[in-house]
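Weekly sync, protein design subgroup
Attendees: M.S., D.O., the rotation student, P.L. (late)

Item 1: inverse folding check
M.S. brought a backbone from last month's batch and wanted to see whether the design step gives back something sensible before we order anything. D.O. pointed out we never logged the input encoding, so this time it goes straight into the notes. Structure tokens as presented (79 positions):
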């Protein structure tokens, strides 16, 4: 199996963690319900003690920021 994935990490270590924990669970609920051609596929999540991971499919054609800034396809620009 030659699949690639990306990982978003969350690490909490204080009372501020309660907010991060709620945000993490909210993000998981949202990602698990949404399927769209233009969004990465949610693969799963892991929680262990104070560390949390969100796994999504890896997309090798640049980040959203690069696309919004027009950096990903500079070779396709017309002069």
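Designed sequence read out in the meeting:
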């Amino acid at each position: 199996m030659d699949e690639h994935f990306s990982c978003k990490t969350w690490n909490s270590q204080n009372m501020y963690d309660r907010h991060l924990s709620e945000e993490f669970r909210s993000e998981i609920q949202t990602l698990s319900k949404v399927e769209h051609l233009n969004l990465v596929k949610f693969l799963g999540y892991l929680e262990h003690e104070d560390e949390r991971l969100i796994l999504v499919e890896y997309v090798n054609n640049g980040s959203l920021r690069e696309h919004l800034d027009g950096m990903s396809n500079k070779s396709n620009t017309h002069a």
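Discussion: Strands lie at 5-11, 42-48, 51-57. The radius of gyration is 16 Å.
Action: P.L. to compare against the previous round before Friday.
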